[in-house]
Amino acid sequence: MSHARAGTDRREPQSHHRQQRGEPVAEIVPASPPDLWSISETAAFLRVPVGTLYQWRHRRTGPRAFKVGRHLRYKPSEVRAWLDDQAA
Length: 88
What we know:
three-stranded antiparallel sheet; 3 helices; 88 residues
């Protein structure tokens, strides 16, 4: 007797398109992936808590962040430039 719960099926989703033999597999790879930091990486670089970055973003005082989907991303060059401006 199987007691599988709903939503716990670990099988791979089936594709409606089947690859033909000898057909090359297409890979989706960006031409040059952007060098972006997550909020955790940015916080580690600046040595501040993640919560501080969220506060700075809300107050519009911290380095500029971009939304990628529902995630915040930072350009390292802009974070460094913002940091240099803070020292001035």
